[in-house]
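Morning. Coffee machine broken again, so started the prediction first thing and wrote up yesterday's gels while waiting. Chain of 194 residues, entered below exactly as on the submission form.
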Amino acid sequence: MARQHNKNYLVILTKRLILRDFNEEDWKSVHEYASDPEVVRYVEFGPNTEEESKNFIHRALVHQKEKPRKDFTLAIVLKATNTLIGGCGIYLISPDNQEGSIGYVLNRNFWGQGYATETAQALLEFGFNQLKLHRISATCDPKNTSSARVLEKIGMRREAYFHEHKWIKGKWRDSLLYAILEHEWANLKHSKIK
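Came back before lunch.
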């Protein structure tokens, strides 16, 4: 996976995807998935209005300019067609402890094709290799079994089940916490090479 820093612009390449910084023109593609009730069922945002999708892009652009940068909110783009199919990110939640978290969301027309797994693997690689993190975590709603499978597939282990952890869309929601340490990720990569 190649990574490029063109001044403040981040690009991560995988086999089929380009994970890149958002730009202003992306808001319509973001709105397509962020306004879909099925896509946002298990996440804290949405369904978005057009204004909320534009505000999301605005916040992402602001984060791109921060120094040091702690929020890497990225577009997920298909290499073959240059189609924006979702969003993802890696966020430094405790720089002093070298800890980050990841997240991802895909337009439902692209579910079930391995794109979330490919995205999450790329985020781990970027987090451990480029950001030099020691620990990366992720949370998901226990009912979101597809997302939990992605996290397990990339080698993250379930560490906790938080009951009524977050107030989301008018009700208390539970969360699963997954995590992986740098040396666990390195061992996984090493065992796959053999």
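The beta strands are 3-6, 9-13, 17-21, 71-78, 83-94, 99-106, 135-140, 157-168, 171-181. Going to sketch it on the whiteboard this afternoon.
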